[in-house]
Amino acid sequence: MSMNVGLTVNGERKEVAVRPMAPLSELLREGLELTGTKRGCETGKCGACTVLVDGKATKSCQRLAGQAEGCEVVTIEGLADHAGDDGDLHPVQQGFIEKFGMQCGYCTPGMAMTAVSLLEENPNPTREEIQDGVKGNLCRCTGYTKIYDSVRYAAERLEETTVESARGDD
Ligand code: FES
Ligand code: FES
Question: Rounded to the nearest 5 degrees, what angle is found at the Cα of 5, between the Cα atoms of 56 and 137?
């Protein structure tokens, strides 16, 4: 038995058939083949499955797919477009590249989505605020320091973009 869930994913309206008790992570990975969203603990502890639901970082293993009916979901695959329509990577993605915020990369999509949500709420976080903001996402490779550097890099790029657009620069 399955049910249909209607939602918007990465800007596109979708209607997806899922098991009634399927989590949102299953809808994304198996229903839409958006496998950038990772499965880790599936108990809400690791954050590997984090996506944006209506703009908020959400552990998609902890949300029933049916609860996402009518919601706007952004996954790592849609993050560049979420940043704008110029085709560039989101500053958070650029930060992880520039500051070496990943090793195996398994935690990175969830970590990036959490960082995006954090920076939307607090565009100029201190080191401690970044540390606190991503504490629900576990990484077993990096020791976190470079992840914090990556998020700080993104905050600075976003600040520059805001200043440039206020000045009317390209
Ligand atoms: S897989 Fe969702 S929090 Fe770990
Ligand atoms: S880079 Fe490997 S788990 Fe974070």
Answer: 30
Same domain, 99 and 68: no
Distance 78 CA to ligand 2 centre (A): 21
The Cα 97–Cα 112 span in angstroms is 11
| Confidence at residue 1, expressed as pLDDT on a 0 to 100 scale | 85
Dump pLDDT digits (tens) for 145-162.
Answer: 999 999 999 999 999 987
For residue 41, the ligand closest to its alpha carbon is 1
Q: Which of 78, 100, 133 is the last residue of a domain?
A: 78
**What is the best residue among 111, 141, 144, 145 to mutate for testing ligand 2's pocket, by most ligand atoms within 8 Å of CB?**
141
Does the CB atom of residue 44 touch ligand 1 within 6 A? Answer: yes
pLDDT tens digits for range 85-114: 666 899 999 999 999 999 999 999 999 999
19 with 61, same domain: the answer is yes
DSSP for 79-95, please give it: HHHHH-SS-PPPHHHHH
What is the token pair recorded at 156?
């600075």
CA of 127 to the centre of ligand 2 (A): 20
C-alpha 167 to ligand 2 mean position (Å): 38
